[in-house]
Amino acid sequence: MTNEHMNEWALHAYADGELSAEQRAEVEALMARDPEAARKVADWKRQRELLKAAFGGVLDEPVPQQLAAALRERTAPSRLSPWLAMVAAMLLLLFGGLGGWFLKGETAPTAVADLGQQALEAHSVFAVEVRHPVEVPGTEKAHLQAWLSKRVGTAFTVPDLSVQGYALLGGRLLSGDEGPAAMLMYEDKSGQRLSVLLTSPGSDIETALKVQESGKLIACTWQDGLLAVAVAGEMGRDPMLVLAKAVYEKLEG
Amino acid sequence: MDFRRQLSAELPVLRRFARALTGDPALADDLVQDCLERAMLKTHLYDPSRPLRAWLFTMLRNLHISGMRRSSRATVVKTVDDLIDGEGSVPPEQENRLAAGSVSEALNRLSSQHREVIVLVGLEEMSYRDVSEILGVPVGTIMSRLSRAREQMRQLLEDRGHTGLRRVK
Fold it and tell me: Could you tell me which chain A residue has the CA closest to the CA of B58?
């Protein structure tokens, strides 16, 4: 059975030009012995020809106006940035009282929702650590950035939040639901801590920002491209939004 | 080369991919437009060591999936009666075009997992490695899906042979 599978796969790989010259010769020998194998390969080639005949016409069609126009525009004004979408949603929230979270366009993947929860939990565990809040101190920022980027699988820049009054304490690696997650910890002059969780869920999408609250803790979550981000801390909504925006801009930047 | 010019060069193939994936010309071009806009916003995320086409296909396919989830607007599946009626009216000299038409009908009948694999490998001639990256599954999975998809295509085309192709001969 296994052998049959291997043979079948070899035939596909042969038909799709995935084999080396040597492997091709082996498959050709097999096809010479086995007419059924030869028939399969011929059949797949015919399928390819039919597919190309069915859709080849598209290649010669003139490019529709809308697509040519899409290529000319440098920016796509139709799409709100996650940040603007969040500001809009905040206004709605202030005046309309929508529940806890808001979405635009794309559905918020559960991965992002879970990341917010993880960020809240991680923050409550590590933010209270006086002596060991981090594994690698903020003084080794370059090392921290290289190490965590590598483990998360997507390169990112450790955001500088000094303008917002937060100094980098350092970071650590956590095991998140979606694989490794980088946790960065910041602290302001009063000892108030802020954590930023970064992970690479394996999708390339853009989501709206989401706010989650749990007791006194609050987390802001979004995904932009390959990186899913959560910012968590113990503070009110307004200061958190300012910090989340700063993190978003630094990562985007 | 200017990124937009590169995008422009990929446009015909991107449209063909979208057309084969959705089976719906209008929906396909909407997806291509979303994909182009996304590509221009996300230029900084493109890794130039990987083929641009595979990057674009990945985005377009993800947009397609999230679009289907959002609107649950699945591809139109025609009834067997439609297929047979449609063919009966086609004159015999157009037999080749008919075969091409029936292959896209057969494609529409595959599950979306099988359809995307056969479109990427069998039509767009992407390498297994690229397909594995585009779909985010291992090469082994690609190969078993491909194997099943091709067998289903064969059966569908054979059935069509009995109902349609032979009749017009």
Answer: A204
Determine the Cα–Cα distance for residues B76 and B81; give it in Å rounded to an integer. 14
Is residue A196 within 8 Å of A190, Cβ to Cβ? Answer: no
Q: Check if B107 contacts A (Cβ < 8 Å).
A: yes
What residues of A are in contact with residue B45 (Cβ under 8 Å)?
204, 225-226
Task: Determine the Cα–Cα distance for residues B10 and A71; give it in Å rounded to an integer.
Answer: 12
State the complex-level ipTM: 0.79
Which tokens go with B58? Answer: 């990945």
pLDDT digits (tens, 9 = 90+) for A105-119: 344 445 566 788 888
Number of A to B CB contacts under 8 A, please give it. 120
Identify the CATH assignment for A82-252 out of 3.30.450.20, 3.30.200.100, 3.40.1650.10, 3.90.105.10: 3.30.200.100
Please tell me which of the candidates B33, B104, B127 has its beta carbon nearest to residue A67. Answer: B33
For the four alpha carbons of B106, B108, B114 and B116, in that order, the dihedral sign comes to positive
Kindly report the nearest CA distance between residue A9 and chain B, in angstroms: 7
Give the closest of B29, B97, B119 to A64, CB-based: B29
User: For residue B122, what are its two tokens?
Assistant: 């069998």
- What CATH architecture applies to the domain B3-71? Orthogonal Bundle (1.10)
Token pair, residue B49, equals 């060591």
Strands A167-176 and A179-187 come out as: antiparallel
H or E segment to which residue B25 belongs: helix B25-41
The band of B161, judged by pLDDT with boundaries at 50, 70 and 90, is low
B68-112 pLDDT, tens digit each: 766 543 334 434 444 444 443 334 444 444 455 588 889 988 999
Nearest-10 crossing angle of helices A2-15, A35-60: 40
Please give the backbone phi and psi of residue A197, each rounded to the nearest 5 degrees, phi first.
-110, 130
Cα distance between residue A133 and residue A131, in whole Å: 6
Q: Per-domain residue ranges for chain A? A: 2-60, 82-252
Structure tokens at A79: 């799409």
What is the residue whose two structure tokens read 């930047």?
A253
